[in-house]
């Protein structure tokens, strides 16, 4: 057996490596695991399973469209009190806002927020910068549309509260 020891240290590794006199190697990482509280710190109040699913979907969206602002939009909605649910099989993130007059549901993709409720279609179509499709109305979230998306979120909440 050769005496050379070859190993790869991943970027961001934090920990220790010990080589004993008999050649045994012990590696101990001090980095947090992916599901450690550091990840859930961004989503206080959500259960670990929801956090894990949300992070997985946001990663998928980022892999699909590297310039997506979906994480920033998700954070904004969450901080503003929208409820979130994630379906990994259906591959969607759903945000719900329980307004005083209207309950609003918006699906978050890597490109936009969309609403497919027929009863809310006329209001959604009235928002600036939206893309109207059948059966949904989409609020673009990337690039120059990001600031308008934030304004549209505030307008949706105001409308939902009456």
Written account of the structure:
- Residues 24-45 are annotated as: Disordered.
- Residues 25-40 have a biased composition (Low complexity).
- The chain is an alpha+beta fold and 162 residues long.
- The chain has one domain.
- Helix content is 33%, strand content 23%.
- The protein is elongated.
Short précis:
By secondary structure, the protein is of the alpha+beta class. Helix content is 33%, strand content 23%. The protein contains five helices and eight strands; from the N terminus they run ββαααββββαββα.
How are the secondary structure elements laid out?
Blueprint: E1 15-19, E2 25-29, H1 37-40, H2 48-64, H3 70-79, E3 83-87, E4 92-98, E5 103-108, E6 112-115, H4 121-125, E7 131-132, E8 137-140, H5 145-161
Antiparallel strand pairs: 1-2, 3-4, 4-5, 5-6, 6-8, 7-8
Biased composition (Low complexity): 25-40
Organism: Blastococcus jejuensis
Region (Disordered): 24-45
User: Number of folding domains?
Assistant: 1
Helix content: 25-40%
Tertiary shape: elongated
Low-confidence stretches: 31-39
H/E element sequence: EEHHHEEEEHEEH
Biased composition (Low complexity): 25-40
Protein name: DUF5655 domain-containing protein
Region (Disordered): 24-45
